[in-house]
Amino acid sequence: MGVKRPRCRRATWLVAFGSVLFLVVSVGPVGYVLFSRGHSDAVGSADVVVVLGGEHDGREYYGLELARTLGAKGVLLSDPYGAGDPVMDTVCRADVPGIDVECFVPDPSTTQGEAAHVSRVIRGRGWRRVVVVTWDYHVDRARYVFRRCVNGDVSVVAVPGGHPGYTLVDWYLVSARQLFGMAKAAVTGC
């Protein structure tokens, strides 16, 4: 005679499987609703504009222009790309009158690593008003991390343009990464 599993154990497995299936099915659509509309902050001025690493989607040039518009004293550009990146080679050498342009390699190469570096720099220079530039699906997580790590008035804005052509599969990947990153930031801090 075979050994029968107790019904309780089978029910537990069914609930666990159903929960995982629900999460897998819902992550993409939920992520689309949460992350597809960058919830940019309103900004009026800045001491420094910080451009986070990621896609070369125009964020670097947008950050330089935003710094001019906001009267910033500096621009900090995250450069996790490695030597010889043509975009970073250009923007890191940008000559913007009255604005100090500086590139840095975040350590670790994460939003938290970027925030930790920015925190050290602004503390040393007495800057308080920080505007962070990132992609629209990253605005909420960047805001959470920077406001936890940086002692100052932090605003986060999305690069204009959105993300045309993203498929549902893209949203699953983006959503999982953003949700995981938010949970990690909540646990690890700066």
In short:
The chain is of the alpha/beta class.
Number of beta-strand segments: 5
The share of residues in helices is 40-55%
Number of domains: 1
How many DSSP helices?
6
Large-scale geometry: elongated
State the low-pLDDT regions, or none. Answer: none
**What does the main sheet amount to?**
5 strands, parallel
SSE order, as H and E?
HEHEHEHEHEH
**The level-1 CATH class:** Alpha Beta
Task: Please report which band the strand proportion falls in: under 5%, 5-15%, 15-25%, 25-35%, 35-45% or over 45%.
Answer: 5-15%
Mean pLDDT across the residues is: 86
Rg calculated over all Cα atoms: 21 Å
Classify the fold: give the CATH topology. Answer: Rossmann fold
Lateral strand order in the biggest sheet? 3-2-1-4-5
Distance, first to last CA: 58 Å
Alpha-beta classification:
alpha/beta
Instruction: Tell me which CATH architecture applies here.
Output: 3-Layer(aba) Sandwich
Organism: Gordonia phthalatica
Transmembrane segments: 12-35
Protein name: DUF218 domain-containing protein
InterPro entries: DUF218
List its traits.
about 190 residues; alpha/beta; Rossmann fold; 5-stranded parallel β-sheet; 6 helices; about 50% helix; about 15% strand; transmembrane helix; membrane; transmembrane; DUF218; DUF218 domain-containing protein
In terms of topology, how is this protein built?
Blueprint: H1 7-35, E1 48-51, H2 59-70, E2 74-78, H3 86-91, E3 100-104, H4 111-125, E4 129-134, H5 139-149, E5 153-158, H6 168-188
Parallel strand pairs: 1-2, 1-4, 2-3, 4-5
